[in-house]
Write a structure and sequence with these properties.
The complex is a heterodimer.
Chain A lengths: L2 H20 L2 H22 L5 H22 L3 H11 L11 H9 L6 H12 L4 H7 L4 H17 L12 H20 L3 E2 L5 H17 L4 H14 L25 H17 L4 H12 L6 H14 L3 H15 L1 H8 L8 H13 L3 H14 L1 E2 H16 L5
Helix pairs in contact in A: 1-2, 1-3, 1-5, 2-3, 3-4, 5-6, 6-8, 6-9, 7-8, 9-10, 9-11, 10-11, 11-12, 11-13, 12-13, 13-14, 14-15, 15-16, 16-17, 17-18, 18-19
Chain B lengths: L1 E10 L6 H20 L3 E6 L7 E6 L2 E6 L7 E11 L2 H15 L3 E5 L2
Amino acid sequence: MSIERVFAAEYGRAVAVLVRVFGDIDIAEEAVQEAFATAVRKWPETGTPPSPAGWIITTARNAAVDRLRRESARQDKHAQAALLRAEDEPVEEGPVRDDRLRLIFTCCHPALAPAARVALTLRLLGGLATPEIARAFLVPEKTMAQRIVRAKAKIRDAGIPYRVPRDADLPDRLRAVLAVLYLIFTEGHTASSGDALVRDDLCAEAIRLGRVLAELMPDEPEVWGLLALMLLVHSRRDARTTASGDLVLLADQDRSRWDAALVAEGQAIVRRCLGWRRPGPYQIQAAINAVHSDPPTDWGQIVQLYDQLLHFTPTPVVALHRAVAVTEVSGPSAALKIVDELDLPSYHVFHVVRADLLRRLGRTEEAADAYRRAAELTDNATEKAFLRRQRESVELKHPKE
Amino acid sequence: MKNYLLSVYQPDGPTPAPDVLGPIVEALGALNAEMKAAGAWVFDGGLFPPETATVVKVKDGEVGMTDGPYVEGKEHLGGFTIVRAPDLDAALEWGRKLAAATTLPIEVRPFR
């Protein structure tokens, strides 16, 4: 196994173990990075050890202990305290849970700002470097570095606990964790700005973390629902754009370019979720995507699923997506009636949907206006180009067709 | 164990009528008793309105005083409670109870 693969697979686990042992995120991170640096030097000569993860954790642990000994010799009280904990490692109390799970809940604590939760999760569990995270979220590197430093300081100074919350608090806290993973995924799926439509590495990272979470919390249907949702959406990544990078709508996609393995995995999870009969918003969205992955789309079923989703998340955005499905079942004028009652003036998708309905109804001038408004509201270059072409195509047509 | 300051922020203006204030005072009393029973209570106190505040400053060895609070705003610090808690989650749980009792926003902050 290459060091890169070991890094991607084991970085988060190693940091999580070291945080538990030393009770300090910075010490854990530095020690794990040092261990990987040592691996880069040694493994080419000695060969990859039989248990790369074990090697990394042991090496990192020794590096941290060495460092703390050096620092405690300089009368550093903080380091002495941490060393004490390292030598007197407490036995695992209560049900044994994976260290990564505790670290995910720590990173996604509601006392941290949402942007900091995302950054910390990517950094500590995904092993992404600060400049990479800054690039992915289009903020200056300095801003991202400050965000991470401040979040780590708050965890330490305010005493944010390193543990999975009690059962009573779990649903609320799990929601925050799932929201962070989905945010990482959606940022990768449709970058809020920039030239490329998809940032594959972010999607892949969100899915990898989703798999970790599902492995750690196998009895939570919503965790599986989110994983299935991400797999099904990601399966269509290659078909979403043309060779020249233009956007292709779901109905026009070349299905042979969908990733069949991801579709099959996602659909199997959705079927398993149905058996649990504990529906939630991620499971329902996964089910909607499962229906879409099984053409021809059963639009009646999609409308029903959106009715269920509205029950959980009664937001205008969900109502808007439901209206798109209503178009296929009851026609564009029924859908437009729903859309025109929604208050989403600054959401570009609202104008895209409205434009499409107006176009279908032959109201081309209004459709062109709506496409123009939509294009103004997105910063993604690929989407902008797509919307401009749509506008031009309705403007070319005779106003009354 | 850490100490946390739970600050009560209240809007400027007159004291609420007794029928509004009565249940709040009662709920606060019950919460303080609960904190003491749990060993979490360190100290608590309510403050007179911000008009009663005086700010003292020393500049070039000269002591200056100004009437009124240091920060003028639409809300002011109305009172506070100090609790001992093992971690932020435990402190936030007291904060949640204090917010429910006072019907006001509570800032939870660790002591250094």
